[in-house]
Amino acid sequence: MSETTDNEFQKALESCAREPVHIPGAIQPHGCLISMDDTFNRILQVSANIHHCLAVSPEQALQSSPQQLLGKQLVKRLQRALKDAAFSTTALRTTRRFGDQTQRYNVLVYRSGTRLVLEFEQLHYNSRHHLLPAVNDWLDRFARANDSQILLDALTEGIRELTGYERVMVYQFDNDWHGTVIAESVNDQAQSFLGHHFPASDIPPQVRALYDINPVRSIPDSSIANVPLIPAEDPDNGPLDLSQGVLRAVSPIHLVYLQNMGVQGALSIALYKQQQLYGLVAAHALQPHPLSPDVRDAARSLVQAATQRLFLIKAHEEARFLQQVRDSQALLAEIRGQLREPEIILQEHGYDWLELFQACGCALVYPKHTFGLGRVPDRPTLKKIAAWLDHESQSHGTWQSNELQLTGLTGLIDKQDACGLLAAPLPLSRKNTGWLLLLRTEHIKTQLWAGNPEKPLHDDKDGRQLSPRQSFATWAQQITGQSRAWSAIEQRAITDLAEHLAVAISAHEIAQLNQQLEHLAHTDALTGIRNRLYTEQTIDTEISAARRYGRPCSILLFDIDHFKQVNDTHGHDAGDEVLVTLSDIITRNLRPTDYFGRWGGEEFMVVAGNSDLENAAQLAERLRQAVETCDFGPIGNITASFGVATWATDDTRRTLAKRADQAMYRAKEAGRNRVMIETVIETTSD
To answer: Can you tell me the distance from the alpha carbon of 168 to that of 187, in angstroms, rounded to the nearest whole number?
Structure first.
């Protein structure tokens, strides 16, 4: 693109991102909508098609009271639902008589500001009983899957079987919000997009944000005109926010997009990983294809179950990788009473690291010493790379790139030698820092796009605007100058490895390292996390580091609420399962610098290295929410109470743990399921 065209394209992207898709002022025609004040006094807006659904004209509906329009029984049910302070959305089933006929409806109810919105959809038959066996069969299949690709393939097949749609895809976002189809089930009539990429502009930011509010989007028939609301805006509050609804009208831009794609019916369901949008399950019908609310709910249930299984599988894969790295670290324990030279350590273990991290070269660079293994630059160049990292990484954290030609290192590392670098600091002392470097070679690949990702522009009254792509034919792009990307678990692993190497390199700390390495294999037998002995040693280590480097150190002590009741009601085996599941939840939500162990019974400890009280309290609140929102199966929901304390100059492990324990018991006394820090300041959930 020319500079002028590029500027126009950027402005068009920004204009597209401002499209108010949450307040379209209209709905899709497969249902009707009623908006009223939450005191049940006035009907404020209705959809223009209400007569087709409820046999009353818009004018009559707007002149009626909620009791007259909906009936006293339904109003009473709504009033009961609103008494719940946590009310957000609910689905009700109701019937209406028209002469000698009775019509059943699914009614989705949600708040929109101070308004109560009801979306009616007709139910033609009871499909719940029919769907249950099929859903259970797919859930059993998901539970048996031990490979993420097999699981995702099963998910797409299951959604296609439930919906009858011609194409179902799992669409994963990258860091730039471009999407890639990583699994697909498709029949002979639909085009396959497996392995294809879609640009971020296909799903702009405000649309992605809607999935945080409502994870399901259904478009039964993209060829039928939207139905306006009457009046067009709420008399007192302006446009009605329909984010939580299922009937929300479709953006005109998206309708053209679907038309160009040959799609007339669509269903998309969001995939989330740790409260972050991970991808979408996108189902496409080539002809209009209405879905009953029961089918939509069943599809969502399949997605939720598969998502939980997917990230459990990935967690196990990451755990196996981390264990391989830790096994390599454990070999350092063989250096008992011997002060091996760092170069010998690199020669003995470096080839294992190259294999584990799929790297072509490895190097240790620290003051007065530089060692390399495999395909690496010469020593003077390695020193220059380390100096650049010292300047660039002000926080002295892990640094990574899989496209070095776009960084300040492009003149130091030849593209023919390596295109990717993963670097972790070696914290040798407060003043001296070294680096552990891993390099990767170029990975040339052909990236397939579903049509040219550069959308055309057209003139509009508001300036140059984006036009949906006219074609989704495969468009190939060759990617050069990049290595394979460094995963988050690899970045976490190299941080841990670098810390152990830093200790090994410091000769005066070798004896202490040997004593600590003897206990690396000591884990809690039930949960597989660190036991109390090693957790205490970790606290001691962090306190020593805090004194030496002048950095903060905090601990989080937490206890499962009403755990005795779990054991008494469900048995000790179920109680043990709760402990194991909770350990998995906490482990998946920790940062690379956190250490997690079982303190005793139902008490656990997180050592938050290099974290002050505020950061530790934020971590504790995130962990509390992760526990609270997890489904523990037959047990239901479990909560935990957290106490947080931070290291002070005169603290020992005992005094620090005592303050955390006192804070935790204040959280218990204040009502449980909350975070208390070592002062009388608390973080709670409503």
So the answer is: 10
**Token pair for residue 27?**
């709905």
Residue 600 and residue 661: Cα distance in Å, rounded?
12
Q: Quickly count: other Cβ atoms within 10 Å of residue 510's Cβ.
A: 19
Give first-to-last CA distance, the chain, whole Å: 51
Instruction: State the Cα–Cα distance between residues 540 and 602, nearest whole angstrom.
Output: 22
Q: How far apart are CA 189 and CA 210, in angstroms?
A: 31
What dihedral angle (degrees, nearest 10) is formed by the CA atoms of 318, 322, 323, 325?
Answer: 140
CB burial of residue 189 (10 Å; 0-12, 13-18, 19+): exposed
Residue 375: half-sphere exposure toward Cβ, Cα within 13 Å: 16
Q: What is the pLDDT of residue 522?
A: 67
Radius of gyration (C-alpha) of the chain in whole angstroms: 29
User: 282 and 254 in contact (C-beta within 8 Å)?
Assistant: no
Tell me how far apart the 2 most distant CA atoms of the chain are, in Å: 94
C-alpha span between 599 and 657 (Å, rounded): 10
- Alpha helix (H) residue ranges in 145-251: 148-163, 205-213
Residue 251's region, left for phi above 0, alpha for psi from -120 to 50, else beta, is beta
Give the number of C-alpha atoms closer than 13 A to the C-alpha of residue 660, restricted to the C-beta side. 32
Q: Give tens-digit pLDDT for 493-514.
A: 888 888 878 777 764 333 433 4
Q: What are phi and psi of 121, to 5 degrees?
A: -130, 135
- pTM: predicted TM-score of the whole model, two decimal places: 0.63
Residues 618 and 550: beta-carbon distance below 8 Å: no
Angle between helices 342-356 and 293-330 (to 10 degrees): 160
pLDDT tens per residue across span 309-355: 999 998 888 888 888 777 766 555 454 345 567 788 788 888 888 99
* Closest C-alpha among 502, 523, 677, 656 to residue 598: 523
The sign one gets for the Cα dihedral 588, 594, 599, 604 is negative
Measured distance CA(251)–CA(206) in Å, rounded: 12
Which residues are paired to 607 by β-bridges?
555, 595
Q: How far is it, in rounded angstroms, from Cα 184 to Cα 182?
A: 7
Interatomic CA distance for residues 451 and 472, integer angstroms = 4
Cβ neighbours of residue 111 closer than 8 Å, sequence gap 6 or more: 38, 87, 88, 89, 117, 244
Strands (E), 359-462: 361-366, 369-374, 399-401, 420-427, 433-440, 445-450, 457-460
Reduce the DSSP state of residue 190 to 3 states and report it: coil
Report residue 345 as tokens: 């350590």
Tell me the sheet residues that pair with 440: 420
CA dist 197 and 219 (Å) reads 22
Residue 542 in tokens: 């962090």
Question: Residue 557 gets which letter from DSSP?
Answer: E
Side-chain-side CA neighbours of 404 within 13 Å: the count stands at: 27
Which residue(s) pair with 684 in the sheet?
674
- Integer CA distances (angstroms), 111 to 36, 84, 299, 567, in order: 10, 12, 24, 39
Q: What is the pLDDT of residue 506?
A: 67
**Of how many residues is the chain composed?**
686
Per residue in 12-28, pLDDT (tens digit) is 334 444 567 888 999 99
Core vs surface per residue 59-71: b (16+ CB within 10 A) or e: ebbbebebeebbe
